[in-house]
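FIELD: query
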Amino acid sequence: MTASSRTTGATRDGSEKMRAAEFFKDNTGFYRKLGVLVLPIAFQQFMLAAVSASDALMLGVLSQDSLSSVSLAGQVTFVFNLFMSGFATGTSILAAQY
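FIELD: result
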């Protein structure tokens, strides 16, 4: 590998990094809108996890049967939420077409 090819590769990598930095800098409005959409969804998922964890902590002192039943119900709720979010996403995509 010659010195000229090494410097060309280095400047190409540098220009790609500059383009990526400009891309992220130029799209601040997009990321602001994306954050408005993502934050409530992330907060909802955090709250669901917090409720499941608090249920496990509260019932963990009672018996192993109650703890296992709450854990099983948490898994069923998680799967139900997956199906409902997929259904809502699919419905919104179909509705947006018309």
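FIELD: remark
The mean pLDDT is 80.
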